[in-house]
From TrEMBL:
GO terms for biological process: one-carbon metabolic process; tetrahydrobiopterin biosynthetic process; tetrahydrofolate biosynthetic process. The lineage of its organism: Bacteria, Pseudomonadati, Pseudomonadota, Alphaproteobacteria, Kordiimonadales. Residues 30-204 form the GTP cyclohydrolase I domain. Its EC number is 3.5.4.16. InterPro entries: GTP-CH-I_C/QueF (IPR043133), GTP-CH-I_N (IPR043134), GTP_CycHdrlase_I (IPR001474), GTP_CycHdrlase_I_CS (IPR018234), GTP_CycHdrlase_I_dom (IPR020602). Keywords: GTP-binding, Hydrolase, Metal-binding, Nucleotide-binding, One-carbon metabolism, Zinc. It comes from Gimibacter soli. It catalyses: GTP + H2O = 7,8-dihydroneopterin 3'-triphosphate + formate + H(+). The keyword Nucleotide-binding applies. PROSITE patterns: GTP_CYCLOHYDROL_1_1. Toroid-shaped homodecamer, composed of two pentamers of five dimers. Homopolymer. Belongs to the GTP cyclohydrolase I family. Pathway: Cofactor biosynthesis; 7,8-dihydroneopterin triphosphate biosynthesis; 7,8-dihydroneopterin triphosphate from GTP: step 1/1. This is GTP cyclohydrolase 1.
Amino acid sequence: MDAVLERVEDPELKVFPQGTVSRPSRAEAEAAVRTLIRWAGDNPTREGLLDTPKRVVKAYEEFFKGYKEDPAEILARTFAEVEGYDDMVVLRNIKVESHCEHHMVPVSGTAHVAYMPDGSVVGISKLARVVEAYANRLQTQETMTAQIANAIEKHLKPKGVAVVVDATHQCMTCRGVKHGDVFTTTRQFRGVFKEERVERQFWDLVRAQQPRGGA
Ligand SMILES: Nc1nc2c(ncn2[C@@H]2O[C@H](COP(=O)(O)OP(=O)(O)OP(=O)(O)O)[C@@H](O)[C@H]2O)c(=O)[nH]1
Ligand SMILES: [Zn+2]
């Protein structure tokens, strides 16, 4: 009989995304990897595979560390001393390494994140950290894009937010339909970024080819 997953608040986790379930032990997670190795048709007790469950579980800790990160905390510190700076802040080409919730295989790409400050600004690295916090969880690209926009909107309360994610899904390139080179683009424009003029300025900045390392 399938184990019944009960919804519990794990004290080790700071964030409780919808449906968070009781967390198995490391030994249980390693045993699950041994099961998958046997399912693939190999022998988990042979020398080359002996330490693999340990490595896979360690890798999972890294891939899914976003569940322990709290975007509210990441965006908590803002700076108001900006000499009245009142235009958009755009971070282009933030690296995105994620895993799709349907196949748990890599999704790789980039995100462009912008916001229109309303008085104060946030440390720019924090925007990249918010992208990572959601990328390091299981979700669809659409969900991740909306989550990033929602977090910035909720915690920074800017005049607007724009998030564009461009990514390839290995579940489409390495298996299934096997269509390589397909990029999926998802976008969320909120507040003033819904205005055509502001959206155009955003795209102009995203597409601007500035020399790297230049002034
Ligand atoms: N919308 C969306 N779909 C995704 C994302 N990641 C993976 N998918 C799709 O999720 C779908 C799952 O479809 P299913 O029919 O349940 O699974 P499947 O049999 O493995 O599908 P195929 O990939 O077509 O072989 C597939 O079409 C995937 O391409 C994502 O981030 N967003
Ligand atoms: Zn997938």
